[in-house]
Design brief:
81% helix, Growth Hormone, Chain: A
């Protein structure tokens, strides 16, 4: 099957899926901290909740990655998590006590861990290896566009309808996700290609975690991203907490703060394919890493609300570029192995170690020295990721294969 001839309906449905998943895959997502902070939850408590959820997701991700490699039911692995995550988020909105919040975050962390690998596997199986980098950028474009529309919807809905408006939006985006999944033609998904086995020799074998041992570049990339996400993960949460408490409007404040980053990510998604072709994948990853320490310095020294604009634009540049470059790098490293999804999931697990434990550290820093200290420390940590990448870059990012030049 020529992957370039995938029916337009399935690619339109894939774009629509990414649009609605922007809101449906994470439940309350960036609004959770701001919402709970205005209900008396301390930064330390919020950091522990985020750490707990991150650890659960970290454990579940490689298991689900192997499942994605081996199952033909990739669409189902998106539908079921969306239904469960939406239910958990609605319960949290209705009753934000300790049991409901912890239970909801447990469900969100575990089942939400399957969505990323399932979406990447589905994308690779639909478009093939050659078109994969460009399609990842398209996915990110529609995902961030969906985030922007969702954030505008949240701002308007809470202004006129309060929490009831949030409930309506969550139900609408969940339904939109289900319809989009149903419109993807399952027959157009090549499940060998979806697992990174573009050239089937007849003996692909099952996915296995030995891929980590046999691919040192994957481990090195995972370590660098672990350091980066240790610095990056709490930043957006802390900014939303700080200004939501100051202004007393958690949903509208978070919508504005997050919206700036999402708009920047739309621009990054448009530019990324050109940047990868023109400057190379290695340079794109380096730019993404450099954005974080600059972001931390600005956030830690500029305390006016106007600081959110450069800070969140840099978030869009850093997280946006790495979000596109990471699966492309993994696909290159594991091309022909039949272990793309488990390899990507394993990388996500290792980087999740940094993201998970950083939240508890961030809560402690805020408690002891305020938000500025947390911004400066977490931004500074990313310098370590930059140094490691400069040392290991040639082992991490292989050159683009000949098939990509077509």
């Amino acid at each position: 099957m020529q992957r370039a001839t995938v029916a337009g309906q399935s690619l339109i449905a894939l774009a629509t899926l990414n649009f609605f998943l922007a809101d449906a895959r994470d439940g309350l997502g960036p609004f959770l901290d701001a919402f709970l902070a205005t209900h008396g939850w301390s930064p330390m408590s919020l950091g522990l909740i985020a750490t707990f959820g991150g650890i659960l997701g970290m454990v579940a991700t490689p298991i689900f990655g192997a499942l994605v490699d081996n199952t033909p039911y990739k669409r189902t692995l998106i539908v079921v998590p969306v239904l469960l995550v939406t239910t958990a988020a609605l319960a949290t909105l209705m009753r934000p006590d300790v049991a409901i919040v912890i239970g909801g975050q447990t469900i969100t962390a575990i089942v939400g861990a399957v969505v990323g690998p399932a979406l990447m596997g589905l994308t690779l199986g639909l478009v093939g290896e050659t078109a994969f980098p460009h399609q990842v950028s398209r996915n990110e474009f529609w995902n961030h566009a969906g985030n922007v529309v969702s954030l505008i919807g949240v701002y308007v809905a809470t202004t006129f309808y309060g929490v009831a408006g949030i409930v309506g939006l969550m139900i609408f985006t969940a339904l939109g996700t289900l319809v989009a999944v149903a419109c993807i033609d399952a027959k157009k998904i090549d499940h060998n290609v979806a697992r990174g086995l573009g050239h089937d020799e007849g003996e692909p074998g099952p996915s296995g975690y030995s891929v980590l041992v046999k691919t040192p570049g994957l481990v090195l990339l995972a370590v660098i991203l672990m350091v980066f996400h240790f610095g990056n993960a709490p930043m957006g949460r802390l900014i939303a907490q700080e200004f939501s408490i100051q202004l007393g409007t958690p949903f509208r404040t978070t919508a504005l703060i997050t919206g700036v980053a999402q708009l920047a990510m739309i621009g990054v998604a448009v530019a990324a394919p050109f940047m990868i072709r023109r400057f190379g994948l290695s340079t794109v990853i380096l730019i993404g890493l450099i954005a974080l320490p600059i972001r931390g310095l600005i956030a830690g020294t500029w305390h006016d609300f106007a600081s959110i604009y450069p800070v969140q634009i840099l978030d869009g540049v850093g997280a946006g570029l790495l979000g596109i470059a990471t699966p492309v790098a993994v696909e290159r490293l594991l091309s022909g192995s039949g272990r793309f999804n488990v390899g990507l999931a394993a990388l996500m697990t290792i980087q999740g170690i940094g993201a998970s434990f950083s939240n508890a550290v961030a809560g402690t820093l805020v408690t002891e020295g305020g938000y500025s200290l947390a911004y400066l420390v977490h931004g500074g940590i990313a310098i370590g990721a930059i140094a490691l990448f400069l040392i290991w870059r040639h082992r991490i990012v292989p050159p683009a294969p000949e098939r990509s030049a077509a």
